[in-house]
Amino acid sequence: MSFGRPPSISSGFQVNPPDRGSFPLDHYGECKDYMQVYLDCLRKNGSNSTPCRHLNRDYLDCRMKNGLMDRDDWRNLGLSNLQGDPATAVTKDKDKPSQK
Length: 100
Description:
- The chain is built from four helices and no strands.
- With 100 residues, the chain is mainly α.
- The chain has a domain at 32-82.
- It is elongated.
- Residues 86-100 have low confidence and may be disordered.
């Protein structure tokens, strides 16, 4: 007695794009250094990500700058409330006129 056949690719199988959180691999290692520093921080802190959030932001910023993920607001990524944020400090320094 047959209970049906397994689904095949030719009949009704549809490919969907990945959900949020899936993004292209960094084939050229453009953000590898940021990733290593972040993973080292996680190892040192027993996988507690709280002390490493600023490093996570640096890594994601690198990925956005290099087109490895779509640019998104930090608030949407849960990284908008970091104190002593180096990314904000760099932006502020760029806005200041250079003193000679």
